[in-house]
Amino acid sequence: MLPSRIFFDDFFDDMDKPRRLENNLMKCDIFEKDGKFNIEMDVPGFKKDDIKMDLDDGYLTVTAEKKEESKDEDGKNYIRRERTSYAKCERKFYVGNIDDSLVKAEFKNGTLLITVPKEEEPADTKKYITID
């Protein structure tokens, strides 16, 4: 008889895999350099054309989505297939109200580098009134 600890460890590991996989996609580092914010993000398995970015209401959204036509390969009887032909992941960042033309992005070797200007501080609108 197998110890229950081993059985349940394997059982819960399988249940936990989607969450762990999701956490491993699109990992990023955010740092400040030369007065701008930089988001350096891993996007493994995607091409430049698979990545879309948009800026809406102060939120920068990065979406990576790939669709490949599945090919029927003669003679293969799959028992398990994990390398799917469709994948999508997305990350959102609040960057404030900035001019979208100032956001720059570069993609090299599976890493996306996004440069975002800092949101300008609003001018002090508070006015003091002198008392006579």
CATH T-level fold name of the domain at 27-117: Immunoglobulin-like
Question: How many helices in DSSP terms?
Answer: 1
Could you give the order of the helices and strands? HEEEEEEE
SSE-based structural type: alpha+beta
Using the CA coordinates, give the radius of gyration. Answer: 23 Å
Q: Which residues form runs of ≥5 with pLDDT under 50?
A: 4-22
**In the CATH hierarchy, what is the architecture of the domain at 27-117 at level 2?**
Sandwich
Classify the helix fraction into a percent range: 10-25%
Tell me the name of the CATH class of the domain at 27-117.
Mainly Beta
Word description of this protein:
- The structure is a single chain.
- By secondary structure, the chain is an alpha+beta fold.
- The protein has a domain at 27-117: Immunoglobulin-like, CATH 2.60.40.
- It is 16% helix and 37% strand.
- It has one helix at 4-24; strands at residues 28-33, 36-42, 51-56, 59-67, 86-94, 104-108, 111-117.
- The strands form two sheets. It has a four-stranded antiparallel beta sheet, with no helix packed on it.
- The protein starts with a helix and ends in a 15-residue tail after the last strand.
- 8% of the residues are buried.
